[in-house]
Amino acid sequence: MVSRIMASPFLFFTFAIACPLFLFMFQSQAAPNLGVGRVKASKIDSQKVNLSVYYDTLSLNCSSFIVRNLARVFDQDLITILNLRLVPWGNAHFNKSTNATVCQRGPDECKLSTLEACVIDVFHDVNKQFALIYCFEFLAIEGRQNDWKTCFNSLGLPQKSVLDCYSSGNGTKLERKYSNETVKLNPPPRFVPWVLVNNQPIRNDYANFALHVCNAYKGRNMPKACQSLPPS
């Protein structure tokens, strides 16, 4: 699956054309049942399902999951019943002797992870968060992760606050928090992406996260995304 994405210049060209409309698509699909025109990442609803994704930013499995699967949270109002939380840390670790972050795929992965941590911290709107991270991860699949700045222009989003977060070291502090959180997971992640629904890992079935989210939802207003799924 991933190799076909990387080998397809047509797919990248399609994304380049569609990117300016991407954020609008998220906003228009996520808003209808909220009454406020957007979905807030920090909004807490006791009936909503918590969907947490622990991932490496340059893992092809993770990038493909985000681009091909996780983007479906914005289909048929699924986003209205869940709190989406992205944790860009995965298999990274801190070298205590050098006080530096070590990432499985080298410095580029560390940089992208910190940038995505800053995106999550700066943009409280889950639509904007995900649109940028989707764009970053799409470029990563194409081997063009160093072109991440183009995502801000394509989506019409300001980059200064994210760059300030990164250059000030705040992004590194955010990553340390993600590290501590990941280490405390029980059971510990066995691979990435490691997906949790209401704090319970769904392990190898992460591609079918929507089914797990719908089964866990206890609210009355079931979105169309759940109505079209097979029974549990």
Largest sheet: 4 strands, mixed
Number of strands: 6
User: How many structural domains are formed by the residues?
Assistant: 1
Stated plainly, the CATH topology is called Glutaredoxin
Gross geometry:
globular
Distance between the termini: 27 Å
Q: Per DSSP, what share of the residues sits in E-state strands of 2 or more residues? A: 5-15%
Number of helices: 10
Portion of residues within helices? 40-55%
Rg from Cα: 17 Å
**Main CATH class:** Alpha Beta
The CATH superfamily is known as Glutaredoxin
Structural class of the helix and strand makeup? alpha+beta
> Which second-level CATH architecture applies?
3-Layer(aba) Sandwich
Task: Produce a short descriptive summary.
With 232 residues, the protein is of the alpha+beta class.
